[in-house]
């Protein structure tokens, strides 16, 4: 079971600013692979399980206590989220920003034309 936010109740400009996460065009992927092959580079890919749950929120987001998690001593309390939940409009963008920051902090570089492929010299 997962906790899911009711993102359909969020309003752009009030509850979040950006919701999109960049996506590479197929042409950029082909150029990236061709360039890597011509330079005899190794390409790695990754899949992060529950990626959106690792995105650090910039906005103040509060959610009501979901059924099954209600504190009987504090029925009117709400949760203040530190990280994104599935269902939040900004979840894809917060994950991309968090992952991007981590890669850049570890000596990776973003592509000049396409922001998705990250490279690092070894």
UniProtKB/TrEMBL annotation:
InterPro entries: DNA/RNA_pol_sf, RVT_2. Residues 1-110 form the Reverse transcriptase Ty1/copia-type domain. Pfam families: RVT_2. This is Copia protein.
